[in-house]
Amino acid sequence: MNEHARTSFARRVLGAALLDRDVYEEVEADRTALGQAALVVTASAVAAGVGSFANGGVWGLVAGTVAAWLGWIVWAYVTSFIGVRLLPGPDTQSDAGELLRTLGFSAAPGLLRVAGVVPEWAPWVYYGCALWMLTTMVVAVRQALDYQTTGRALLVCAVGFPVYLAFLVVSLLLTGPWPI
Q1: Which of 7, 10, 17, 160 could form a disulfide with 108 if both were Cys (CB 3.0 to 4.6 A apart)?
Q2: Residue 113 belongs to what domain range?
């Protein structure tokens, strides 16, 4: 990856985490950004696994990574189905690539789950990141599906969020006891 690509990628990740609509529009339009989006999801999942290591050792690392990846995939597909098939807006035109690219970048706040390696922080880090990722996903959905209101995007994401949250809870249970 050349210097410009690294800078562009880092800018996109930071912009996505900070809810920058222009970044989501840019990623939606960039057909070459699917690899970058997959990298964000993978790095976010690995961060979840690393954050689970202190509580579950190697099992926590593996289970946390796999559960984070699977949870994101299920959430993305549920969100896509609801947003495109059940609740499309009048201007909704999207293909799977557009949605996967924007939703991939919406996983950017999950990179902070690595801080879960500090056992006292783990539950707060995981739940805080989940809520932040819900927020970034709302922006991603609004931009990718060309919704006129944030309310419609919020509704679409809120329906899929419990599925993601269930995966989050399962991963927390699988990776060991959590001090609260």
Answers
A1: 17
A2: 3-174
Report yes or no on 180 lying in a domain. Answer: no
Within-domain flag for 52: yes
The pair of structure tokens assigned to 135 is 């927020």
Mean pLDDT of the chain: 85
Q: Contact 156/99 with Cβ under 8 angstroms?
A: no
Q: Determine phi and psi for 121, rounding to 5 degrees.
A: -95, -20
Cα 172 to Cα 174: distance, rounded to the nearest angstrom: 6
Domains in the chain: how many in total? 1
- Residue 7 pLDDT grade (very low, low, confident, very high; cuts 50, 70, 90): low
Task: State the DSSP H helix or E strand holding residue 52, giving kind and residue range, or none if neither.
Answer: helix 34-80
For the chain, the maximum distance between any two Cα atoms, rounded to a whole number of angstroms, is 49
- The model carries a pTM of 0.83
Instruction: Give the closest residue to 129 by CA, choosing from 43, 38, 20, 53.
Output: 43
SS3 50: helix
- In a domain, residue 25? The reply is yes
For residue 172, what pLDDT band results from cuts at 50, 70 and 90? low
Q: For residues 170 and 162, is the Cβ–Cβ distance under 8 A?
A: no
Residue 130: per-residue pLDDT: 85
- Give dist(CA 145, CA 125) in Å, integer: 29
